[in-house]
Design goal:
Helix content is about 40%, strand content about 15%. The chain has about 350 residues and is an alpha/beta fold. The strands form 2 sheets. The chain has a 7-stranded mixed β-sheet, with helices on both faces. A 4-stranded antiparallel β-sheet has the order 8-9-11-10, covered by helices on one side.
Length: about 350
């Protein structure tokens, strides 16, 4: 329980037993009659918010990711999981977090919504982590260090040595979003959660698994911390249809995400190669995942032009100096990528 006492907000710790008592009664004590939560008895099984579907998905995720069930937490997407972690660990108007920039904008928005101070840390001029810079901004009020692996929207894969340097010198929570890591075929840090009880690794069925519509993400973390967060999270139950669909998906015969990965990386090489030959492209940054960053003289104009062509791209809005006038391009299907290249070749400044 040391991880709980160290990281969960003090004003919430006294309520954890109440959360757990309520959840244990519903999920672990088998009954035949449920008349305790104002539910309509008709339309089974959709009439209740707890069922075997969640437990079955937990078993599937445990098997798929080779992690014990006790170390897994479900959440409503990466942003939903981060919001849960933030609310459970950071006192509003008091605590702070350190976020490595650039980062997905939603992470910053979640922190703002929770009235938590954000301490920004820049990566270096290659978008690599700077452990010393991270450790310098940390104070007693800093409860979390957050970054993406690989970086979003940079696609830059951080070195494991620099990540471990942060973990070795910081006792607060280190939350790492690995939702784009499977495209790189690099080892996940999930295996390190026993060594680092302050480590939380986030993963999602979006991206590599092409199931963003399910809105389901997983956290891999210390078992006691996972239990505490799970009890809090049950206040906001996810739709059981999500658990059913995700379980069916992970056990689907003939499912081949690796084949999708290979095709996407082949397309990435084609698109980035075409970009390198375009006069309007000032720089194409290396990428380890299914998106890449490119610099233009007037990114906003090109972004608007592509919108007029029916092509949505991500105009990067970040305070990182290397991200000025940048657009992030996600690799699409072959005909979509061809259309993008054709449109940019026809762009007239």
């Amino acid at each position: 329980m040391d991880a709980v006492n160290r990281h969960i907000r003090l004003d919430l710790q006294s309520y954890l037993s109440l959360f757990e008592e309520s959840n244990v009664e519903r999920t672990e004590i088998k009954s035949d009659v449920y008349i305790d939560r104002h539910e309509n008895p008709n339309n089974f099984p959709n009439n209740r918010c707890f069922s075997e579907d969640e437990a079955e998905l937990l078993r599937s995720v445990s098997k798929y990711f080779q992690q014990p069930e006790e170390n897994i937490l479900f959440g409503q997407g990466i942003d939903g999981l981060f919001d849960l972690i933030l609310r459970a660990t950071c006192a509003p108007h008091h605590d702070s977090i350190a976020i490595v920039l650039p980062v997905g904008n939603n992470v910053l928005n979640v922190a703002r919504l929770n009235h938590v101070e954000v301490r920004n840390v820049m990566t270096d001029d290659t978008f690599e982590l700077q452990p010393k810079e991270i450790l310098q901004v940390i104070s007693k009020s800093t409860k979390i260090v957050y970054f993406d692996q690989p970086g979003i929207p940079t696609g830059r894969l951080h070195s494991l040595e620099k990540i471990k340097e942060v973990l070795d010198h910081y006792e607060g929570l280190v939350v790492i979003n690995e939702s784009s890591l499977p495209f790189c075929q690099q080892p996940s840090l999930r295996a390190a959660i026993n060594r680092y009880p302050n480590l939380i690794v986030l993963q999602s069925l979006a991206g590599y698994w092409a199931s963003d519509a399910l809105g389901l993400a997983f956290a891999f973390l210390n078992k006691d911390l996972a239990k505490a967060l799970r009890n809090i999270n049950h206040l906001f139950p996810q739709p059981l249809t999500t658990f059913r669909q995700a379980n069916e998906f992970l056990n689907k015969q003939g499912f081949d995400a690796n084949k999708w990965r290979i095709n996407i990386l082949e397309e990435r090489a084609k698109v980035m190669g075409a970009f390198a030959q375009m006069p309007i492209v000032l720089k194409v940054f290396p990428s380890a995942t299914n998106f890449f960053l490119a610099t233009f003289s007037d990114a906003e104009s090109i972004h608007r032009f592509l919108l007029e062509q029916g092509i949505h791209t991500e105009l990067v809005k970040s305070s990182h100096p290397l991200c000025q006038n940048c657009i992030c391009f996600t690799i699409g299907l072959p005909h979509e990528n061809t259309r993008l290249i054709s449109a940019l070749r026809n762009y007239k400044p």
